[in-house]
Amino acid sequence: MERTIDEAVRRLEAGELVAFPTETVYGLGADASNRAAVARIFLAKGRPADHPLIVHLGSAGQVGDWAREVPMSARRLADEFWPGPLTLVLPRAGGVLDEVTGGQDTVALRVPSHPVARELLRHFGRGIAAPSANRFGRISPTRAAHVRDELGDRIGLVIDGGECEVGLESTIVACDANRVTLLRPGKITLAELERIVGRVDAAGTAVPRVPGSLRSHYAPTTPIELVEVGTVERRCAEGSATEGLAVLARRPRPDRIHVLAWREMPADPDGFGHELYAALRSLDASGAARILVERVPSGEAWAAIRDRLERAASRDIQDDT
Fold this sequence. Notes:
Layout: H1 2-13, E1 18-20, E2 27-31, H2 35-45, E3 54-56, H3 72-81, E4 86-91, H4 98-101, E5 106-110, H5 115-124, E6 128-129, H6 144-151, E7 157-158, E8 171-175, E9 180-184, H7 190-197, E10 201-202, E11 224-227, H8 232-238, E12 245-249, E13 261-264, H9 269-284, E14 290-294, H10 303-313
Parallel strand pairs: 1-7, 3-5, 4-8, 9-10, 11-14, 12-13, 12-14
Antiparallel strand pairs: 1-2, 2-6, 3-6, 4-5, 8-9
Helix pairs in contact: 1-5
């Protein structure tokens, strides 16, 4: 792995792209201070230029290089959850590229916990801008093979760090002097955030643009339909003989149900989140005409999964990663 890290650092310093694992999903990395390198991210993904990127850092001590202000709320959250699946949106420092921030006055920062990501960041020594390593708006990759399937020769190096532990993108929180706002749900829940900083507001209209905030996102090529628990049997019975159905549910396939593919998911949110994107990729490759997904519970622990599934099911394609 040391040779691979050294090679990755050489490529990043040369302005090339490197895909690497984090605990959430695989990222498509470039030197965040190199304008030409950052532009290659957008070209490789087919990503609109006004969408901000998350800058990955080796430690919280580098935040001052990227943010001109770090409110006490942000310091508390960083102390509690970094390294880990939390992104903080802060007022940008002078010199941060517009290409990284989407032209906004804020920058998104994260210190990942995956040992490979941490080793890469330690050796590189600077910030790495890294959205998910997939085509714009599609299913995020949680294995190195997913990255290769998605991007092929668009990138020079993919570091294989195994399966991502979390499997869902980071929780994103904006912090200013007056309030803390949850912009994207993730593994770190609202209750966990409020335990550290008190009240956390829901995202409104006057908040920074962040990855994963558009209506359609995380989507397979096959259309997804969210259905109520217990209605899959009826929907399968209604399907025509020529319509191949695939199902994702938190239970085994009933004997009387015949579908093209059935993916039984873990009953707990952590297990479900860990397997979600790999399961969607598998069902997308099954040849089905439609994927039926049973809705998940309404509790807060399932908020990030509900968010991803609802966006994946939207066919108003305004993709974002």
